[in-house]
Amino acid sequence: MPGDSRTALSNVLQKYWGYDGFLPLQPEAMTRVMAGGDSIVVLPTGGGKSLCFQAPAMCLDGLAIVVSPLISLMKDQVDALTTCGVPAACINSSMSHAEKGHVANEIRAGRLRLLYMAPERLVQSRTIEFLRSANVSMVAIDEAHCISEWGHDFRPEYRELKMLKEVFPGVGIHTYTATATEKVRADIAANLGLDDPEILVGSFDRPNLTYRVEQRTDRLGQVLEVIERHKGESGIIYCLRRKDVDELTQALTEMKIRALPYHAGLPDDQRHRNQDAFIEEKVDVVVATVAFGMGIDKSNVRYVVHAAMPKSIENYQQESGRAGRDGLEAECCLLYSGGDMATLKWMLSDLEGDAYKAAVKSLDAMFNFCAGVVCRHRALVSYFGQEFPQESCNACDVCLGDLDLVDEPLIVGQKILSCVVRLKESFGGDYTAKVLAGSGEQRIKENGHDQLSTWGLLKDESRRNIRDWVEQLVGQGYLRKAGEFNVLEITDLGRKLLQGESEPRLLQPRAAKSKSQSAAADDSWEGVDRDLFESLRTLRRETAEQLGVPTYIVFGDAALRDMARRRPSSLEGFLNVKGVGEKKRADYGEAFLACIVEYCGEHEVSTDVEASSTSSRKAATSRPRRGPSSGARKAFEFFESGHSVEQVAESMGRAKSTVNAYLREYLAHATVEDPSPWVDSETTARVEQALDDVDGDRLKPVFDHLGGEVSYDQLRIVATCRNNRQAAIEGSAAAT
Ligand code: ADP
User: Fold this and answer.
1) What's the fold here for domain 525-603?
2) Is the confidence at residue 5, as pLDDT, over 60?
3) Would the CB of 46 count as within 6 Å of ligand 1?
4) Which of 87, 424, 540, 594 is the most exposed place for a label (fewest CB within 10 A)?
5) Residue minimizing CA distance to atom 24 of ligand 1
6) CATH code matching the domain that covers 3-201, chosen among 3.40.50.20, 3.90.1570.10, 3.40.50.300, 3.90.550.10
7) What was the pLDDT predicted at 624?
8) pLDDT category, 650, cuts 50, 70, 90?
9) What is the DSSP string of 79-133?
10) Global confidence as pTM
């Protein structure tokens, strides 16, 4: 990028958005806009597409037009820009005459830099006439796959945009999408008549997402497990049918989880209310059909659960991609069952001919992904035709070791296939699994299958495991499902397995239930004071409520974490927080600083911490490591040899608060039961007594009970060791 442009863009990025660097491909995409040619930019969700045109729009003279398909998205983007101090507006049908007049005046006065509108409005002759006199600097077309019939969301009105090249000759047209295929790209270029567009395609991998795929055996229990891992955080649970949405919402609500439903069968106003409640963080969970999520831009969705299989990998990529748009770690958990295939096929039954065949092919690919045993990140990017360079992603169930490989997969595979042969290739997966498990079910007895030599051949395994293996054997091509009833048949490859000439890879769920955390999570929480983060979150919610905007428009989670990591005490230091530009500092600085200073004073936590090189956004762009961070690991060694917090802080040159965070991690990690190296025995005894005297899990009442004489850090140490002791006692009681 020419030096001048780069400096101008960097300055704008810092001043308005508070970012000190670019994400991958942003420099190239922005340079193209500055230079005036056309472009097609393909970046995954969360890849930072919006800034590719917003930042140059602030450097170029004139007005940038942004085409956006949904009014709700438009409004959020404009609100987000305005809170950063960027003069932006939109024009849409929900606005009054006077509001539209005001925007027109701002344009005439040359005060606006970005104008958002829907394609059908832009192509109206009145709009074009008006904009001809407005010095249009560039046109950005967001969600550009809507132009293509091959995209997943074709919108005929996008085709009309072809006229732009004629009515704004010489003005660069830049298109942005997360949809990958070459066909769609070629369609975009041809339909808009782009002039030798620069095509920039980023990696489709989303390293900050941790993927997990499980056979669905206990939907509610499995969903609860995920929610439990993300208490108080925002999550979306997708179901196939409205009925499932309603049932699951009700079950979660009964368990005191703040959840609301969303599907096309609900009245419009209720749907909007539920969506707003989720965006404003009045509820944590939305249970929805896939209709949900299109019109929202919420960046801090921390988990997406698919309670059933999606209909294609493209859909899965898009729906799961709604998690972690802010680049921070997020979890995507997919629960599937063989029955989903049948339901989805039934849902597709109104399609005909080639369209039906293509849809079924997509379903098969999706199913193979579910039953597959390769790294999920690798499987997804290879589906989209890209290489996955790393050996292990450290962010999926396969690579994190949540699933173990079966010791003797050939023998297990042969037992299963033999049973299919004995059943004369006439029964489905469920039935076959029951026979192998030695079920005494009436139907099996009536069929005489309890007399087969393969009956009970895998009786030491759970039926769920056997069922899983059947699916994995289907996914790897040893078995196939045939006919209306999905009866299992042996393939040619399966025959090789029976002869011992091909060995499958079979996974089984890990015995211990606890799921490993991806390294992205470790990194992006490094040095963050979580309680302060929670206090800042509350303040953000209150501020957003007063302003009537979604919470992430005030600050994203990444900015809040960086605040709780750096803990600035001055307006000057506040500007160093990633995601804080000049306008946000002026608008919210005082309030957020007051919260930080008060918290740090109350809890004896140091302020103005130099952030280490592990920035919050880095987690999204670099491949994460596994397990505790290197700083934490070093600290663990000191703790193991009984060093005090002060000694470790001095030896490592880290703030006491950071070392206290490492100690908390260490106590949990090493399940330490004795607090004596860090808290003297008299204080420990007082805290233990107070913990007995005060009800509940919160430490504030304990702190108050002790008259504020024992610091929160010390309270946490004693409480954690005590919890570890109790868990050990419960564990040994359960074992006996
Ligand atoms: P997309 O439109 O590709 O889904 P967004 O434009 O919404 O992505 O950006 C995703 C997130 O990344 C947003 O929270 C945005 O503020 C953040 N982001 C964008 N560019 C940068 C950058 N250069 N540095 C840090 N964060 C960035």
Assistant:
1) DNA polymerase; domain 1 (1.10.150)
2) yes
3) yes
4) 424
5) 19
6) 3.40.50.300
7) 36
8) confident
9) HHHHHTT--EEEE-TTS-HHHHHHHHHHHHTT--SEEEE-HHHHTSHHHHHHHHT
10) 0.69
